[in-house]
Design brief:
By secondary structure, the protein is of the alpha+beta class. The protein has seven helices and 18 strands. Strands 1, 2, 3, 4, 7, 10, 11, 12 and 13 form a nine-stranded mixed beta sheet that branches.
């Protein structure tokens, strides 16, 4: 942990955290914020306390790009126990028997999995951070209150069967934003007639990112113990989080105008699209949007 007398600093960039199981995403966010002595920090979509894996944490001005990452695809490694169901969809809930697993094998599982590939609808779990009239559903669930939740469209790009042994199924799932893996496991288990719940969940991919560049909190702590420069060496530029955005390099006058909130003339983009903006010193300064009139409008700029 950082020392109480260390001053918060203006530091910008993204840290790829390999989140441990047992803590909320907000808790580990605050840990990392304190460790880096950052004035500001935010994450790009929470992981369940049970879940581990990739959690990009934006520091300082980089929090302004977080919203552009929320729509990106995710990848998960999940292990599920069949034959039982859980009140929460995972091992933290009340577990009860559901159905026999006799006859459930690799062949029958793969047949069912094929039915979940593509565009599907999911009913969000009560134990989720979705809100109803400002109250998170999980708070209602803890009081024994269950409310109707409309199905939501999600896309399952791919499900790779990995293993099925001792009633435990292992899968590699590549999916769209908004996908609840707990719900996917429950629906697969019910389709097989045996039920199922998540016993292990690990996010292995987020957009173009994977775990190869991530650090656990303990690893970050060891770097901090060496020196602040070692810790800062893991910070990625905010623009590295936006590989699908094209880049626009501005001259001095254009930089000044767009920082004042003005739209600028810029040849090269004749359609509406989000852009990474770089100033006259080729420093990333935020997000702009082009229009049909060869102009760029400021959207989310660093200050």
């Amino acid at each position: 942990m950082s020392k109480p007398n260390q001053e918060a600093r203006d530091i910008n960039g993204v840290v790829l955290l390999d989140k441990a199981s047992g803590s909320s995403s907000n808790y580990v966010l605050q840990q990392v914020k304190r460790l880096f002595c950052a004035n500001k920090a935010g994450h790009t979509g929470s992981l369940d306390p049970l879940a581990t894996g990739l959690l990009p944490i934006c520091l300082g001005q980089a929090t302004k790009v977080a919203q552009f990452l929320l729509d990106d695809d995710k990848r998960y490694l999940v292990r599920a126990k069949f034959g039982q169901v859980s009140s929460t969809g995972d091992s933290e809930g009340r577990i009860v028997d559901f159905g026999p697993t006799k006859g459930v094998d690799e062949s029958s599982i793969k047949t069912i999995l094929s039915q979940f590939i593509g565009d599907i609808h999911q009913i969000p779990p009560m134990y989720s951070a979705l809100k109803r009239q400002g109250t998170p559903l999980y708070k209602l669930a803890r009081k024994g209150i269950e409310i109707e939740r409309p199905p939501r469209p999600v896309t399952i790009h791919k499900i790779n069967f990995l293993n099925f042994e001792h009633e435990v199924l292992s899968l590699d799932v590549f999916c769209s934003k908004g996908t609840y893996i707990r719900t996917l496991v429950e629906d697969i288990g019910k389709s097989l007639g045996c039920g199922g719940y998540v016993i292990e969940l690990r996010r292995t991919g987020f957009s173009h990112l994977d775990l190869s560049g991530s650090k656990t909190y303990e690893e970050l702590l060891k770097l901090k113990e060496q020196n602040l420069e070692s810790l800062d060496s893991v910070i990625l530029g905010a623009d590295e989080m936006l590989p699908s955005f094209e880049s626009a390099y501005l001259d001095s006058e254009q930089t000044g105008d767009i920082r004042l909130g003005k739209k600028i003339k810029y040849l090269g983009f004749s359609a509406s699209q989000k852009l990474k903006l770089y100033d006259h010193n080729e420093q990333f300064i935020g997000i702009g949007e082009s229009n049909l009139m060869s102009e760029i409008l400021p959207k989310r700029l660093f200050v």
